[in-house]
Amino acid sequence: MMIRKSFALLVIVLCITSCAGIPYQDEAQYAYEEGLALFNQGKYTEAIPHFQRAIERDPEYSSPYLYLGRSYLNLSQWTDAIHPLRTAFRLSPEEFKEEIVSLLLDALIVGAITEFKKGYFKGSTGYVREALSLDPDSQRAQDELIASLIALGSQFLSDGNISDAIPAFSEAIELSPDNFEAYIGLAKAFLKNGNYLMAVETPNKAVNIDPENRDAQDHIKELLK
Prior knowledge:
This protein is mainly alpha-helical and 225 residues long. It has helices at 2-20, 24-40, 44-57, 62-74, 78-91, 94-118, 121-134, 139-158, 162-175, 180-193, 196-209, 214-224. The longest helix has 25 residues, at 94-118.
């Protein structure tokens, strides 16, 4: 009887010590697989803590970052998805980067739109610049960057920050030489800056783009006064 008790105690001790000695990588793999099973069932909210635990156990393990980002995307939590997808892109082998880029681009652009709607134009511009660094040919990202730059320039202008407003409008014009709104914003910035010659020349360019536009005509009349 004593031998049986001693053997049972030995088994318990071995079990405890073996569990305590599980490498963090094995723990990370187990947590990731638990999260993946929930993800595949569409239980994205429940999957997130498992992916986070896997990342805590092994910060260089790329798969939990990817599926953490995908979980946030499926929950329409776009800005939350950006950081894990960035990390997944950095850690993943080259052959998997293209798939991650597609997901990260979506997260960045929709994140930029979300920031834009909140009035956080600087954050919006930063996200779109990052998207363009991943895909310089993305027309969607370029359009969002132009809109963000014009809104950012307008915000600088209303705050009296002319030195930052001028570069924002100027960059928008470089990206979109026919953008009427950017020319008008730049003209207003030059006017506030005391550069009256450029303040007149800039809306003239806008009038050449849209001769019937009353805003440009009114702006020129105001300058002439």
